[in-house]
Specification:
Helices cover 46% and strands 17% of the residues. It is of the alpha+beta class. The strands form 5 sheets. The chain has a 6-stranded mixed β-sheet. Strands 3-13-16 form a 3-stranded antiparallel β-sheet. The chain has a 3-stranded mixed β-sheet with strand order 4-12-5, with helices on one face. The longest helix is centred in the C-terminal third of the chain and has 23 residues.
């Protein structure tokens, strides 16, 4: 289910993404901060699985609390959890049910990453999954290889419905050309990290102009100099000029004269992305750039999406292909949430390029490991067997949450899963009809690498907290705080 988060700046977020909720929450408790840090590390490492880390950490802590209340010492719980963790990673190796064979195959990649989208935007997984897969495969090229997530851009445009979203091969910026030139093919691109305007002459004295010719010639030399600069750009074969900051009317006039497409970008970050997209080096002073500083684009074109005016930079080169997913929607909150789902989908494909192994999703992997670890607990002689048993019960939180979010009876679903898991390890929850089904038929897979990291980070956070028996808060020196410094008479004062 979604949460409505209002941060300290009164900004509204409607999302189920744990990473966003943690980022926008002001957490003070040191133990909670550790779990939040583990979730952030999971987001940094894999880009997905933050919900898994938080849910599992919380359940492990709750089970540990119950054991401590029963009289089990924390050191016994630590030993039990560590043994269960080692066993869990051994079992995870055996849980692999599918391996991505061809990272350039659209159908195969889409099948494996669809579940990542469905967990954030249920019902839109087919639409968004196809867009993400198309964009990622374009950036990777025909040979495949590693995915650079920075080459997959997302541009949100209000208006229309989510079905109107599309993939554009290139980089899209919401700007329009300053000149009447709206298209340039096979264009050299110059990027200026400065204003394009004439230098204003400064004089301390007073200038007396007696005739109209004197007035006309007063600034003519500056205009001639500025025109020669733009003429030099045109002679170098540059068809597109991008600049940050202001662009004077005189500059626009000369760009029009020499049929150069001029684009003004307000954001320096966007300017850097454009420079990377076309392979240019930003120039910090006015002058004709050298050939090494110039970029190249197969097409720079003006395009109107709905009522939004955009410029598309397209460069079809294997080492630097870019793709932009243009998202459409009616509200900014919805667009922001869909963007987060797209980011998770892109990161899922990136994880696949790193490790193509997949494990069954929909709670199948967790239930199978819970059953095996519970059996393993019965073979242990000491008190730590209780901790191992509770670790197994903690893994049930994942299918339990899935069932609760789908409006199903969790106890019945988990009992059914345990019964079916004896036959095979690929039985999971189908939230569409509330039944337990084979995940291979439903094509619900999770990345092995994401699951492995989530288990490691969740357990590390819990073990660190369990090793603590006291919290010592240091206070700043210098006497009592301002709140306690009330005006009062000293003892024995009668005046």
């Amino acid at each position: 289910m979604n949460k409505m988060v209002i941060n300290h700046l009164d900004r509204l977020f409607v999302t189920s993404d744990a990473a966003t909720i943690i980022k926008e929450s002001d957490i003070h408790h040191p133990a909670a901060k550790m779990i939040a840090m583990a979730a952030k590390m999971q987001e940094n490492e894999c880009g997905d699985g933050s919900n898994f880390v938080i849910s599992l950490s919380g359940e492990l802590m709750a089970q540990a609390q119950s054991l401590i209340q029963m009289g089990v010492h924390p050191s016994e719980i630590l030993i039990g959890y560590e043994k269960a963790s080692i066993k869990c990673h051994e079992l995870l190796e055996k849980q692999v049910c599918y391996t991505v064979k061809d990272m350039t195959n659209h159908e195969e990649v889409f099948k494996c990453m669809k579940a990542s989208i469905a967990s954030k935007q249920y019902g839109l997984e087919d639409l968004l999954g196809n867009l993400i897969t198309k964009a990622c495969l374009h950036t990777m090229g025909k040979k495949g290889g590693k995915l650079n997530v920075d080459n997959v851009r997302v541009q949100k445009i209000l208006g229309g419905g989510i079905q109107d979203s599309e993939v554009i091969q290139g980089m899209v910026v919401i700007r329009q050309s300053q000149t009447s030139v709206h298209r340039a093919n096979d264009a050299k691109v110059a990027v200026f990290n400065t204003n394009i305007e004439m230098n204003q002459g400064e004089t301390k004295g007073t200038v007396l102009l007696t005739t109209a010719d004197q007035l006309e010639n007063y600034s003519k030399s500056e205009e001639d100099q500025f025109e020669s600069f733009i003429k030099g750009i045109a002679e170098a074969g540059i068809k597109v000029v991008v600049c940050t900051g202001s662009m004077s009317e005189m500059a626009v006039h000369f760009f029009e004269k020499y049929h150069i497409m001029a684009i003004k970008i307000m954001s320096k970050f966007e300017m850097k992305r454009i420079a990377r997209a076309v392979g240019a080096t930003p120039v910090v002073k006015l002058g004709t750039p050298s050939p090494e500083e110039l970029g190249f684009a197969h097409e720079v074109a003006f395009k109107e999406i709905s009522s939004q005016k955009c410029i598309v930079f397209r460069r079809d080169e294997p080492e630097n292909k870019m793709a932009t997913i243009v998202l459409r929607g009616s509200t900014t909150s919805m667009l922001d949430d869909v963007e987060r789902a797209v980011d998770d989908g892109v990161n899922a494909i990136k994880t696949m390029t790193r490790d193509p192994r997949m494990v069954p999703g929909a709670g199948a992997c967790e239930i199978n490991m819970a059953k095996k670890i519970s059996e393993y607990a019965k073979t242990q002689p000491g008190l730590d067997q209780y901790a191992i048993e509770r670790f197994a019960q903690s893994l049930e939180i994942i299918p339990r949450v899935i069932a609760d979010n789908a409006g199903l009876k969790a106890e019945e679903i988990i009992a059914d899963l345990y019964a079916k898991t004896g036959e095979s390890n690929v039985w999971g929850i189908d939230v569409a009809d509330g039944k337990v089904k084979d995940v291979n038929e439903l094509c619900i897979y999770d990345c092995w690498d994401t699951k492995s990291w989530a288990l490691k980070l969740a357990l590390d956070a819990v073990l660190t907290i369990l090793k603590v028996d006291q919290i010592i808060m240091s206070k700043p020196a210098g006497g009592p705080g301002k709140a306690n410094q009330a005006a009062r008479r000293p003892d024995g004062y009668d005046g």
